[in-house]
Amino acid sequence: MRLALRELRRRPGRFAVAGGAMAFLTVLLLFLGGLLDGLYLGSTGLIRSQAAELLTFSDDARLSLLRSRIDPPVRDEVEAVDGVESVRGLGVALVAASVPGENDLADVSLVGYEGGVEGVPDPPEADFVGYADRRLEAFGVEEGDRLGLGPDGIEVEVVGWVEDTSFLLQGGLWVTPATWREVLGSARPDAVLADGTFQALAVTVAPGADPAAVASAIDEATGSTETVTRDEAVLALPGVKEQSSTLSAIINTTFLVVGIVVALFFALVTLERSALYAVLKAIGASSRQLLVGVVVQAVVVAGAALAVGGLLTFLLSLVVPPGVPVQFEGGRALQVVVGVLVASVLGSAVSLRRVIKVDPADAIS
Amino acid sequence: MPALELVDVRKVYRSGDDEVAALDQATLRVGNDEMVALVGPSGSGKSTLLSISGGLLAPTSGTVVVGGEALGAYSAKALTEFRRRRVGFVFQAVNLVPFLTARENLLIVAELSGTDRSSARARAERLLDELGLGDRAGHLPEALSGGERQRVAIGRALMNQPELVLIDEPTSALDTELGEQVMELITTEVKGRGTAAVIVTQDERMTHYADRVVHITDGRLLDE
Amino acid sequence: MSSNLDSLHALRPTLGLAFREMRRARLRFGLLAGALGLLAFLVLFQQTLLTSLLGYFTGALESQSAEVLVYGEEARTSVEASVVLPDTVEEVAGVEGVGASAPLGENTFTAQVGGSLEDVVVFGYELGGPGAPTTLVEGRLPERDGEGVASDLDVDLGLDIGDVVALGPDEDVPIEIVGLAADLRFSVEPTVFTSFATFAAGREAVNPDAPFVPASLVAVAPADGVDPAELADRINAEVDGVEALTRADAVAQAPGVAETSQSFSIVFLLAYVVVAIVTGFFFLILTIQKQQAFTLLRAIGADGGVLAGAVMVQALVVTLVGILLGAGATALVAVLVDDDFAQVPDPRTVLTTGTVIIVLAALAALPSLRRVRRLEPADAAQPSAGLT
Questions:
Q1: For residue C188, is pLDDT > 80?
Q2: For residue C7, is it left (φ>0), alpha (ψ between -120 and 50) or beta?
Q3: Which among B93, B98, B149 is the nearest to C384, CB-wise?
Q4: Quick one: pLDDT band at residue C384, thresholds 50, 70, 90?
Q5: What is the pLDDT of residue C338?
Q6: How far apart are CA A93 and CA A191, in angstroms?
């Protein structure tokens, strides 16, 4: 092993190119992962942050928050179901907001809620004030700003910040249901909802009760709803499932490319080293010792590539156009690190046979 | 107990229906302190004999005993360990690890067997001094002259205090003066430690350094 | 004449050398082809993905007849967020250069399609006016309320000619499919074009609280001889609260299109860089390894151009094999994965991407070529240095 490390130190050039290729592959992996996470987190924050275990939609909405509507009589029915501890209304409107001092409009998902959202305080006392998601800072929104929502520019004052509450890549703005209804009515007159009507209900299950059972009970009681767990609601958001599976497949393919590049490099280098290996075996090195050396080199080169790749990704993130939905998460980075290391070890193992096959007798030509 | 004992060693290579005997009825005894020169034209089987003596190659038939150890029963793994402990090699062309310094090239055997580093290092320093490489020890092979590289190779062969040192054409790439220097060195180092040596050479100028000259032609030894 | 013969003479040994070596070192060249193949697959697959995605986002906009589309200003070129009130629709109609204009409604409905509930995007246009589908492949355009044209991709979903899509919670707004058009999807959903009246009826059925159903856009056909871009500018100047775009601009600026294209571009760029690096270093290392053999060949009279040519031939062959592998893999995935997105790659895309990759590989192989050409035949006479 010391031999392998010394070769790395004394002959860095020959490893540099393989390392360079792997560094760019690392950037690719981190970027793809960032896309995956950015799309997922940015689309689903609103629902993920609900404290309630269940969400109830009207059964003709195909779990679409924007198309669902729950009238007060249905809500009463839901509240009466056994195992339901509390019910809170939820409504969303996707609108454009003018930001004081800025030329561009901000994309906002205006949420009318009744509390029960993690990380978001209870609804403000007054109408026309709200908590803004940090995502909106990218549009120049500051605390105290009066945002003009929709075509009539209905003003809502930002009185606080929240995080990770976006919906369909638009930053959340959390307001009272009355505020939300008014903006909805002005922006989409064909989608206006009467007082008391929400798009969905966030249902908290009584302690000890089985959420799945309560969900079925609710739907049976009303006959017009579809109740699902929070996770199911997340997956039903448009594009979430397809984007995640497609990007994951692409990411896995890229890991494969890493493995092949490493395999290729070590296949070349091992061939070149055949004579040296013969000498080493002649003076008493075992195949195992030589192989460990190869794997160690693969791991060190991978490590260096990860470090350089990480730095390049950081630089890339500074120049990525703002519209591109990338979000770099620690968990994903860890996944990439592990994946690249595993791929490197496996790739270097391709040289296994050749190392074993080297005949020490070849040292004496 | 002789350092090397080959009895009726035969090495046969098959190619298709043909059978080629690279070595035939080779019997050779090399004493503990002996330096034997093995002389023969190319293709005579001297490399084969050297390889078999060092446990690099298994004979088709016959017995090989080095320092009392019978190699016939050894697995490949056991042979590897045997070479590590008891044999020193000086190869003709490829010898030193190109990215290790002279000193590190000496230490490599110790590293492979996991020997205590400090004692190995002390031994390496002594050898380097004796070989006149004291101030070149930190250089890479590419910065050393041909003669200096040869000396490093000899040093490495002696690091594990072997029973037997096997040397392949040590002077073929050197001029007469350098060749003599190397042979002097080999004689001093090898004989001074009571190690046996078999030196394969085509160079008749150098054979007078050996205690005994054995000729080999077409796989057969002419003297015993 | 003789120079042609010379080149021909040089070609045979070049090819012979190149192929002989490749045959003898199958693992190495195979791995390189594999790596390039996977990278080519990555790029091709994502390109087909991108094309499909963009088409599914905005196909409907592209495939309708209005050359100018007028959005509500605060919609920021998002059809789904756009609302244009009746007064504004009238104003637009009055702008000089407007040949015909009509409201265009858009919304996503949950509807009974083929026996199950599906999401369907419905566009409502004024029959006979601008906003009608232009890419009809089967059947006819709607001639009265209650008729519609669907995307030809969704035939299997239950949107074939003769099928009925029922909008509204009580399924009381039926649309009979009378025609099929190509590239008609919008927002990645099945899409149906019907009359504005039918569309409005559907919206009212879904939301009885709504006082009226506004248009999402104004579809405008320029008068004869009027340039759509100029007309769009004029509408923007004369009418408050709107944003007029040509059809092409509307497609390009649809939300998600720019960001999606940019995201994919970054991925393509990175993949291409890796292609160049991997190919370049492979041939460089190979050349260094073969230095002695090459020097020997030069000493015995092989032409430097032939040797260098052999390296280039190998680079091209391996890259070509890689591209074919990548294209094959993309096609295979398309066939196996029953997904609208994965499509068999368009030959033109394969050609363009393939060319880029080949050019990159050839450029990357140049340093190796230079090395080969610079070899001195006299070096062959030196005694072999071995490793040391």
A1: no
A2: alpha
A3: B93
A4: very low
A5: 64
A6: 10
Using alpha carbons, select from A204, A193, A174 the residue that is nearest to residue A56: A204
Q: What is the DSSP annotation of A252-273? A: HHHHHHHHHHHHHHHHHHHHHT
Which position has the higher pLDDT, C344 or A119?
A: A119
Residue that wins the pLDDT comparison between A110 and A275: A110
Give dist(CA C215, CA C237) in Å, integer: 21
Contact C273 A24 (CB under 8 A): yes
The answer to whether residues C215 and C237 belong to one domain is: yes
Of A195, A223, A251, the residue that ends a domain is A223
Look up the domain containing B193 and give its range. Answer: 30-58+73-221
pLDDT in tens, B149-165: 888 999 999 998 898 99
User: Could you give the maximum distance between any two Cα atoms of chain C, in Å?
Assistant: 97
What residues of A are in contact with residue C280 (Cβ under 8 Å)?
A: 17
Number of domains present in the structure of chain B: 1
HEC string for B118-129: HHHHHHHHHHHH
Instruction: State which amino acid sits at residue C220.
Output: V
- Cβ–Cβ contact B89 with A under 8 A: yes
Provide the domain limits for residue C195.
Answer: 59-253
Band of the pLDDT at C385, cuts 50, 70, 90?
A: very low
Question: C159 and C44: one domain?
Answer: no
Residue A340 lies in a domain: yes
Identify the band that residue A131 occupies on the pLDDT scale cut at 50, 70 and 90.
very high
Q: What is the pLDDT of residue C321?
A: 93
Q: Evaluate if residue C53 carries a pLDDT over 80.
A: no
Q: Is the pLDDT of residue C9 over 80?
A: no
pLDDT tens-digit map of A249-305:
889 988 988 888 888 888 878 877 888 999 999 998 999 999 999 999 999 999 999
What amino acid is encoded at B98 in this protein? P
Q: Which helix (H) or strand (E) holds C117?
A: strand C116-125
> What pLDDT digit, counting tens, does each position of A304-316 carry?
999 999 999 999 9
CB contact residues (below 8 A), chain C span 286-345, against chain A:
286, 289, 339, 341
B-chain CB neighbours of C292 within 8 Å are none
Residue C382: pLDDT above 80? no
Our CA-based measurement puts residue B78 at a distance from the nearest CA of chain A, in whole angstroms, of 10
Tokens of B144: 């050393």
Q: Is C108 on the interface with A (CB under 8 A)?
A: yes
Interchain contact B84–A (C-beta under 8 A): yes
Q: How do residues A149-159 score in pLDDT, each as one tens digit?
A: 987 889 999 99
Asked whether the predicted pLDDT for residue A129 surpasses 60, the reply is yes
- Four-residue CA torsion sign, A250, A255, A256, A257: positive
Residues of C in contact with A18 (CB under 8 A): 281
Q: Is A46 part of any domain? A: no
Among B47, B57, B99, beta carbon nearest to A6: B99
Mutate: best of C209, C290, C336, C388, partner A, most A CBs <10 A? C209
Most C-contacting residue of A268, A344, A358 (CB-CB within 10 A), to test interface = A268
In this prediction, does ipTM exceed 0.90? no
Q: Dihedral angle at the C-alpha atoms of A293, C24, C307, C288, nearest 10 degrees?
A: 10
Specify if B53 maps to a domain. yes
Question: In C, which residues are within 8 Å of A257 by CB distance?
Answer: 35, 38-39, 42, 274
In chain A the beta strands, taken as DSSP E runs, fall at 54-58, 84-98, 106-113, 129-133, 146-149, 154-162, 171-175, 200-205, 225-229
Q: Which residues in chain A are contacts of C83 at CB distance < 8 A?
A: 151, 187-189
The predicted structure's pLDDT at residue A246: 80
Question: C173 and C196 in one domain?
Answer: yes
If one counts the domains in chain A, the total is: 2
